[in-house]
Amino acid sequence: MTDLSDLHAALAGVLIADRPLDEVLTEVVRIARRALPGAEAVSTTLLRGEKAFTAAHDGQMALDADEMQYERGYGPCMDAGRAGEVFVVDDMATDERWPDYTRTAAAAGVGSSLSLPLPVQGRSVGALNCYSSRPRAFGEQELAIGQEVAALIAVAVANADAHARSAEDAENMRRAMTSRAVIEQAKGVLVERHKITPEQAFTLLTHSSQNTNVKLREVAEELVTTGVLRGAVR
User: Fold this and answer.
1) Is the pTM of this model over 0.70?
2) How many domains is the chain built from?
3) Cβ neighbourhood burial of 220 (10 Å; 0-12, 13-18, 19+)
4) Residue 174, in any domain of the structure
5) Alpha helices (runs of H) in the chain, residue ranges in sequence order
6) In this structure, are 177 and 136 located in the same domain?
7) Residue 16: closest CA among 174, 175, 125, 165
8) Could you give the CA distance from residue 98 to residue 78 in angstroms, rounded to a whole number?
9) What is the pLDDT of residues 59-78, one digit of tens each?
């Protein structure tokens, strides 16, 4: 699949909502592999601060080559993501830019690679990595298509990542609301039991949490469930 209209249609058909991020990205890299002539394996490296990791891959060669770079802290996929530049390794056996990595990759059967940054709003969020067992598998045609693919994949990655973060935020919000609800219940128990104000009840809960080194939510849950306030004098 090298026709860009077909590529656009394929990426537009990727469903992002209500799916795990790794599942979405796996579908995206499979599309990228079909779109790139010469690519035997494709992966997506994502950057989180100083940490780089393979979010999805299609082909074991890609995962193995990525991991070799992560172990060393450098390599074309990491540099493409960090610097926002394209890196082509025509021949792993002779390339001298990352000598320890390229020698190891060549020995493992990697002949050449193409790493393209994933640009989102003026910054790179990672890299699209393409690998072949043949030297010089990525020429001008592959580079041109790869750049188009990377731009489109960057959007898909950003959207999927944003959705995953939104889902995580929603779950955190739900947990926070649940915690507040149980704390309010526990305060009500203490208000009724000791005929004190809600503020005084909250103080009793926080003191119990601090004195027993137990989270406030857990102290509240135990009180609501068993009627027992941790650390209270009986």
Assistant:
1) no
2) 2
3) buried
4) yes
5) 4-12, 21-35, 60-72, 76-83, 99-107, 140-194, 198-212, 216-226
6) no
7) 165
8) 11
9) 999 999 999 999 999 999 99
